[in-house]
Amino acid sequence: MAKAKRLSGGCQCGAVRYSIPTPTEGVHLCHCRMCQKAVGNVFAALAPVPLKTVRWTRGKPKYFRSSTDVDRGYCPKCGTPLTFRYRDGQRINFTIGSLDDPEAVTPTIHYGTESRVTWLRLSDRWPHEPTDVKALKKRFPKFKSFQHPDRDTKRWP
Ligand SMILES: [Zn+2]
Ligand SMILES: [Zn+2]
After folding, report:
1. Euclidean distance between CA atoms 147 and 76, whole angstroms
2. pLDDT one-digit tens code per residue, 58-71
3. Which of 5, 48, 79, 106 has the greatest number of C-beta atoms within 10 Å?
4. Ligand 2: distance of its center to the CA of 31 in Å?
């Protein structure tokens, strides 16, 4: 088998650049409320690769811990969302839009569909899976979100 081609990508300003192997499985769109906020859009397009295969070729992301169990990487200079990772996981997801060639990968499933905006009409036939809250609670018994609530607050956190 030919060695999988590596893909390059990076943030909008170019301060952070990376090289990853071509993601082969688990490429997805996540419509969950956390991903919506994290990318400032109505879903996140994400492609996972093994953590140890990642090479940061220029600069390094900063991480926002969006919950007890998740780190989200972004460029400290321009803010482009770059990664999503469960802190106990051996995989790290890269935002497909930050790839130099977003056509290099194709999602196969929708996750977090409980928060999918109703006006978004998608003609693909990929399966839709809501967030499996039960499974998450089992995997992360002490899970706590650090995301600001969907309303104004006087003080946060
Ligand atoms: Zn940047
Ligand atoms: Zn999500």
Report:
1. 19
2. 999 999 999 999 99
3. 48
4. 6
